[in-house]
Design a protein that fits this description.
Blueprint: E1 2-3, E2 6-7, E3 13-15, H1 18-21, E4 25-28, H2 30-39, E5 47-51, E6 56-66, E7 69-79, E8 86-92, H3 98-109, E9 113-117, H4 132-148, E10 156-157, H5 163-172, E11 175-179, E12 197-202, H6 210-219, E13 222-224, H7 233-248
Parallel strand pairs: 3-5, 8-9, 8-12, 9-10, 11-12, 11-13
Antiparallel strand pairs: 1-2, 4-7, 5-6, 6-7
Helix pairs in contact: 3-4, 3-7, 5-6
């Protein structure tokens, strides 16, 4: 935002329960309160926005510090509708911290739902307790990236899905594409529907198997490419989402 050539900084965003946002004075406590007071060093009179991650945002002014946290007076509220069309990225689980990088970037660009996919050629294996911690990291990353990018809706990060689960999602989608290097048609040539669920399937570094490809195509997914270069699995979803967002009218 600019005013007479000056850059006006946007107020920071914090999260609280919807019930808390209905109060005239919000008590920002716990980790959010500590971050606001100790890291952002907010002082009385400064602006801050508080959201519930599901569309409701309260525009606030800091009024006081207390032993329980930071107190903020609500000046206005706004309810942001859920985006439509809704962008879902089925993300094959990458190695190391590349999954968290993918989640952060997809959240910042505007993806609405992220589905960790245990593809046949994925190196990491998220089974039982081994998947609890990485899934929690993905969800925490989406939460923090949504705050940083000032999103009213935090993207949903689902439980890990199988190829069969993905095929079921494809059958219910308004439009679904599976990214394939060398595909005859590019994603940029697609004219997506104006409403509904737009699904993008991103394979692992080792590629999608023939059986997985056949299942997705049978369910209705169209093969599409992303230009002449080959992207990493951790960046392909962000690029694909940006293409769809620009062509769907959301940007």
């Amino acid at each position: 935002m600019t005013f007479r050539g000056l850059i006006v900084p946007q107020p920071p965003v914090f999260l609280a329960d919807r019930a808390e946002l209905q109060r005239d004075v919000i008590l920002l406590s716990g980790a959010e309160g500590r971050h606001a007071a100790a890291v952002r060093r907010l002082r009385p009179g400064e602006r801050a926005d508080v959201g519930d991650g599901a569309g409701l945002v309260a525009e606030c002014v800091v009024t006081a510090h207390s032993g329980r946290g930071l107190e903020l007076a609500v000046r206005a509220r706004r309810e942001m509708p859920r985006p439509d069309p809704l962008i879902t990225v089925v993300q094959a689980i990458p190695k190391g911290d590349r999954g968290e990088l993918a989640v952060a970037e997809m959240t910042e660009v505007g993806v609405d739902r992220i589905m960790p996919w245990a593809a046949a050629r994925c190196v990491p294996v998220w089974r039982a307790e081994r998947g609890v911690r990485p899934l929690a990291r993905w969800r925490a990353t989406a939460r923090e990236a949504a705050k940083q990018s000032r999103r009213a809706w935090i993207p949903e990060v689902t439980e890990p899905v199988s190829a069969g689960d993905v095929a079921q999602v494809v059958t219910k989608a308004a439009c679904a594409v599976v990214l394939e290097p060398g595909a005859a048609h590019s994603l940029g040539q697609l004219s997506p529907p104006e409403s509904g669920d737009l699904v993008v399937i991103v394979g692992p570094e080792g590629g999608i198997t023939d059986d997985e490809t056949a299942a997705f195509r049978a369910a209705g997914a169209m093969p599409r490419g992303l230009g002449p270069t080959v992207l990493r699995t951790s960046t392909a979803g962000t690029v694909a989402a940006a293409v769809l967002l620009s062509r769907s009218g959301r940007w």
